Amino acid sequence: MPEPKTHNPELPTDVLRAHAEQQFAEELSELAKADNRPRPPNWKLSPWAVATYVLGGRLDNGFVVSPKYIGNRRLVEIAIATLATDRALLLLGVPGTAKSWMSEHLAAAISGDSTLIVQGTAGTSEEAIRYGWNYARLLAEGPSRAALVPSPVMRAMSEGKIARVEELTRIPSDVQDALITILSEKALPIPELNDEVQAVKGFNIIATANDRDRGVNELSSALKRRFNTVVLPLPADMDEEVKIVQQRVEQLGRALELPTEPPALKEIRRVVTVFRELREGKTADGRTKLKSPSGTLSTAEAISVVTNGLSLAAHFGDGRLRASDVAAGIVGAVVTDPIQDRVVWQEYLETVVKRREGWQDLYRACREVT
User: Fold this and answer.
1) Which end of the chain has fewer CB atoms < 10 Å from its terminal CB, N or C?
2) For domain 20-231, which architecture applies?
3) What is the 3-state secondary structure (H, E, C) of 186-218?
4) DSSP for residue 93
């Protein structure tokens, strides 16, 4: 069996966060070379190759593709198959289930461009989805294509690419419905010019949403019908979640150039254990029932806690991740409500952490910051 080839994608050296198509350029290139399966119009890779890029695998030439998403393979296949049809894709789940991460990597693999994105907020306007105007040119020349400022969705339609709409339910309902004509007619009218933009083959939309966020604007039934919904769950078991956190923290550590050792698996497992037990309302052995805090305590928050701990260890310690480095992050993630969550955390700290064998250092560190 040939040895795995190494991955050395050429990245911009001065950017804080490279886009997926930049960070994994070599993997996408190797997949394109090895991909001999049918590709939908304007797709850079076949659906099989997109799934391999997202889930990881070894190519026939020995090249190893790293997994970007660790979870149910069938969910990924359903999402990819949806994008090969005329149905848009809605990735739904509680915060921290890798919806945006999945969206970015699907767009990078399919279109080679993950940057056509509308970030949903309470202040997102209809122009962010349809188009705006260069008012200097509009006043000087009148309405024209040259004076029009295309939105990311309009650009995706014109170029046959994937557009991403993040946090769809954060967008006001009347603005959300600007997508209905785009998704049903595959065209975007421009009444001011008596014109329209018709979608080129390959165009589709990936939207993300969660129903745990405050200020959620429920999707209209007309808009829901135009999406195929895939629910991304929290990691099924401890080992899966630990693997996800370890992989992402190592990637972030390299990107941030943290001068530290790879994160200690012991500390990652302890952070994940705390979050899973509080999230599920019981200890790992099922013997003790627990109160759950108001936050989600997702995998994404565990990644943040460990990454922040690595920064502390690198710059104010000896480079080794210890309990004292992650304690403040754990407390900050759990105690989001200073009254209700503080009671929950104190009870968990005294009844579980204090009595657990080998966790005395974590107990003392958490007591200090609490």
Assistant:
1) N
2) 3-Layer(aba) Sandwich (3.40)
3) CEEEEHHHCEEEECCCCCEEEEEECCCCCCCCC
4) -
Please name the amino acid found at residue 204. N
Reported as a single tens digit per residue, the pLDDT across 44-70 is 999 999 999 999 999 999 999 999 999
Ramachandran region, residue 186 (left: φ > 0; alpha: ψ -120 to 50; beta: rest):
left
In the 8-state DSSP scheme, what is residue 351? I
Give the distance from CA 320 to its chain's centroid: 28
Whether 222 contacts 279, CB under 8 Å: no
Inter-CA distances, 218 with 63, 86, 120, 169, Å = 44, 23, 13, 6
CA 349 vs. chain centroid, Å, equals: 31
Q: Phi first, then psi: what are they for 182, rounded to 5°?
A: -60, -45
Query: What is the three-class DSSP state of 62?
Result: coil
Decide: 304 and 295 in contact? Cβ < 8 Å: no
Torsion of CA 283, 289, 293, 299, to 10 degrees: 30
Q: CA 162 to CA 155: how far, in whole Å?
A: 10
Instruction: Report the distance separating Cα 208 and Cα 359, nearest Å.
Output: 38
DSSP letter, residue 65? E
Rg over CA atoms, the chain: 23
pLDDT digits (tens, 9 = 90+) for 75-95: 999 999 999 999 999 999 988
CA distance 339 to 337: 6
In sequence order, what are the beta bridge partners of 229?
90
Angle, alpha carbons 77-106-44 (nearest 5°): 100
- Of 239, 240, 260, nearest in space to 318 by CA: 260
| Distance, CA of 328 to CA of 73 (rounded, Å) | 35
pTM of the model: 0.87
Query: How is the chain split into domains, by residue range?
Result: 20-231, 238-369
Contacts (Cβ under 8 Å, ≥6 apart) of 124: 118, 170, 171, 172, 175
